[in-house]
């Protein structure tokens, strides 16, 4: 794998969130998704944990070099190449996994295309997914459930490992206060049946995928369920309250939330409770429909707060089911 020149462009940018975790943004993808990819360096395990893999690097405009200028020496569109070769200012000017010294572990918060299109960059790495609804992730179902079929995309080839609710990726049987990596999988179906969240016990970070985020519409497919989403969000609210209480007793800051788009490093409890309040207002008829459209024979509606903070796009039938 060649090393990019300093003026070589990239489809990605990276910034530090915690001493061990970086937010990688695919900032100009052709699908206009701008997905968040999270990269956690787990030194004691010699592992790089990647949360979602983005859109595969396909861009709709010029790439930027690592210093923010327009790159002139070719474009890095492979997520793995970016992680292993492109200097990151917030990492002392070094790549996140220089020369691929550490192995990889990939976690997919759900199977939509904008989270899985670079998964083939990691062919020999474990790929962890929710085991909540195995049929939803069956090979025959993936073309539709990934939304790849709708976009005439090939489904990436990967073999997922389905894990249970409360599965611990790192730190099994470790003391929670011991300073070692400890990350738990939380099943949070609703947006999709396979949606999961992750909690990093050391950093106090909650990763929620596309269950909620700000500024852009949260888009539920027809396989989603607002009823189930409410239940999952109530679980996350209680979970976050418990973690906040633990962290307060230890003199630590509150849990922060990181989403699959737009939202990062925000107070988790406030964001989740505010998102639930908005969706509850939608179901109760307190928010007006901003737009209607027909998609694949379904009436799709869009709601948006006047402030623009939260918005929702989903088949109308999901609203009806929640009443």
TrEMBL record:
Q: List the Gene3D superfamilies.
A: Ribonuclease Z/Hydroxyacylglutathione hydrolase-like
Specify the Metallo-beta-lactamase domain's residue ranges. Answer: 36-261
Checking InterPro entries in the record gives:
Metallo-B-lactamas (IPR001279), NDM-1-like (IPR050855), RibonucZ/Hydroxyglut_hydro (IPR036866)
Its domain of life? Eukaryota
A Pfam family for this UniProt protein?
A: Lactamase_B
Protein name per its UniProtKB record: Metallo-beta-lactamase domain-containing protein
Query: What is the native source organism of this protein?
Result: Panaeolus cyanescens
């Amino acid at each position: 794998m060649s090393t990019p020149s300093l003026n070589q462009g990239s489809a990605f940018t990276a910034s530090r969130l915690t001493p061990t975790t970086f937010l990688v943004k695919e900032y100009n993808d052709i699908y206009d998704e701008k997905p968040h990819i999270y990269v956690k360096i787990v030194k004691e395990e010699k592992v790089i944990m990647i949360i979602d893999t983005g859109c595969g690097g396909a861009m709709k405009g010029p790439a930027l070099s690592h210093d923010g200028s327009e790159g002139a020496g070719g474009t890095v569109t492979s997520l793995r190449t970016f992680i292993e070769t492109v200097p990151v200012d917030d990492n002392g000017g070094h790549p996140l996994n220089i020369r691929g010294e550490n192995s990889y572990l990939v976690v997919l918060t759900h199977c939509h295309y904008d989270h899985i299109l670079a998964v083939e960059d990691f062919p020999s790495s474990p790929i962890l997914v929710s085991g909540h609804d195995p049929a939803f992730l069956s090979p025959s179902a993936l073309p539709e459930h990934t939304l790849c079929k709708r976009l005439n995309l090939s489904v990436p080839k990967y073999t997922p490992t389905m894990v249970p609710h409360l599965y611990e990726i790192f730190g099994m049987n470790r003391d929670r206060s011991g300073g070692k990596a400890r990350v738990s999988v939380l099943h949070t179906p609703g947006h999709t049946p396979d949606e999961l969240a992750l909690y990093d016990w050391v950093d106090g970070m909650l990763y929620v995928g596309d269950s909620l985020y700000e500024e852009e519409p949260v888009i539920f497919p027809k396989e989603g369920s607002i009823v189930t989403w409410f239940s999952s969000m109530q679980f996350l609210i209680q979970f976050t309250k418990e973690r906040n209480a633990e962290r307060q007793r230890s003199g630590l800051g509150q849990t922060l939330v990181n989403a699959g788009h737009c939202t990062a490093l925000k107070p988790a409890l406030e964001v989740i409770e505010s998102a639930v309040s908005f969706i509850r207002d939608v179901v109760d008829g307190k928010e007006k429909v901003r737009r209607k459209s027909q998609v694949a024979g379904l009436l799709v509606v869009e709601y948006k707060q006047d402030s623009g903070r939260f918005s929702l796009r989903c088949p109308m039938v999901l609203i009806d089911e929640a009443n």
